[in-house]
């Protein structure tokens, strides 16, 4: 029954005559509105705080405060100024009507009430405000979609074009004989550079698509039992080209038998991006450790490196979803900052929070928590 009541339009009335309040109750409840009435203007504001009405019926002539004055008081509050107010009055003259519209009223109903007229006017203004709210919501959604599109075009136009242009240039050099495929350094340098560039472009494209889906709520989260030790090993294998080239030692310190309850694809994306960043900002022959700890009902995953470290002011930028922040790695590897925005989004969707500890010159630790898998999940 409670759910049915909350779905009804809620009308709040102020009138100094108890008989009028009871008559309004009879009419409105019979027409399937949820109704509350009071003759106390102080109590009226308490009712406003409890629940915002869809429409207010306001008596013009009251002993303590005039209806027009009360209307002005209501409209002075930002959260209440859009509520339509219909004045109830026994006298109708042009001067009063003008005054009522000036202070923010939308209509008049004369006493004694005609039920059909009262309901028709209430229905009209409730539907108008509902339509206005829908239009504002659609405008906001359109604005978000346009912002999303603009950011995507910016990333595609700049960050995705860079690796593809670099790869094309290298292949042009090969075709023209500027780079000799028979050279001893061809496999070690040229082919590696091409593979690395293609990996960067593919990773960016995957992040871009994942981020776009997430921002537009088109991505579905399916939590399941995840073996974190195995997910880390899979990520190590995926990023082996980059870690081997920089001779970085990759340590999996996540205990076997540590299971999270989270979305498989999202957590894979998070691990891939954070570890890829760790490789990028860790010097040659550095060390990256992935640790797993049990903490109450959560698992904490840490990706720790002994790289450049991050200044405090940059940590805030990295974790700001509205900031497009990127830096070059230790070997001038490019980045977009998009991966960490996606990581933060995915970790949040799985009930966790992404955080960073870092000291410049000593390294960084990116860590996040996930729910522990239990037989009850």
TrEMBL record:
Coiled-coil annotation reads: 125-152
Report the residues modified as 4-aspartylphosphate: 59
Q: Which molecular-function annotations from GO does this UniProt entry contain?
A: phosphorelay sensor kinase activity
Give the EC number(s) under which this enzyme is classified.
2.7.13.3
What's its top-level EC category?
transferase
Q: Which domain of life is it from?
A: Bacteria
Write out the entry's keywords from A to Z: Coiled coil, Kinase, Phosphoprotein, Transferase
Q: What is catalysed by this protein? A: ATP + protein L-histidine = ADP + protein N-phospho-L-histidine
One protein family per Pfam: HATPase_c
Domain Histidine kinase: residue ranges: 155-374
Pinpoint the Response regulatory domain residues.
Answer: 10-126
**Protein name as annotated:** histidine kinase
